[in-house]
Amino acid sequence: MKIGENFLGFGISGKGLSIQRKKMNLIAENLANGNTVRTEDGKPVNRKILTVKQKDIPFNEAFNDMKSTIKLSGTNSNHITAPSTFEFNSPQKNGLEFNVKDDTTQGDIVYMPEHPDANQDGYVQLSNINTITEMVDMIAATRSYEANLTAFNSSKQMAKDSLEI
């Protein structure tokens, strides 16, 4: 979600909304595949996890160059001069990396000799997706989404109120 650079709060909240939406979609996919024993390639179904990472940028690139410095007449050349402006790059310029990884923990192994996917001993490895864990993650993602939406609405109200001045 890209929003104008003059509204930094909108961009930050938009990124948060986007991350939580992707997380909820992935959790819904996990819940839908929770009872599936095997994928098309014959391997057990694994839980998918979303990892989000800020792209690596040096600290000094996160800030724009200082435009100018304040120089008062009569100041000593040994004095440190203060910057008149500095700007923080918007989050749209500092992108995020989204990665979906498979949880490699082994699912439960259950004795079901009549199951078509049972091994020669009659055991079937189930998926490692736990409905309770997924529902807890869904509630946390929903709450985070709501918090980002509240922050977005607050930023919107502040921008609206500033236009009324």
Structure description:
This protein has one domain. Helix content is 38%, strand content 12%. It has helices at 8-32, 59-62, 131-163; strands spanning 48-54, 96-102, 109-111, 123-125. The chain has a two-stranded antiparallel ribbon with strand order 1-2. Strands 3-4 form a two-stranded antiparallel ribbon. Helix 1 (8-32) packs antiparallel against helix 3. The longest helix is centred in the last third of the chain and has 33 residues, at 131-163. The two termini are 28 Å apart.
Draw up the topology in text.
Elements: H1 8-32, E1 48-54, H2 59-62, E2 96-102, E3 109-111, E4 123-125, H3 131-163
Antiparallel strand pairs: 1-2, 3-4
Helix pairs in contact: 1-3
Shape: elongated
Look at the helices and sheets and give the structural class. alpha+beta
Instruction: Please give the radius of gyration in angstroms.
Output: 25 Å
What is the averaged pLDDT score?
Answer: 78
- In order across it, which strands form the biggest sheet? 1-2
**Quaternary status:** single chain
Strand content: 5-15%
**N-to-C order of helices and strands:** HEHEEEH
- Kindly give the count of domains: 1
Q: Approximately how much helix is present in the residues?
A: 25-40%
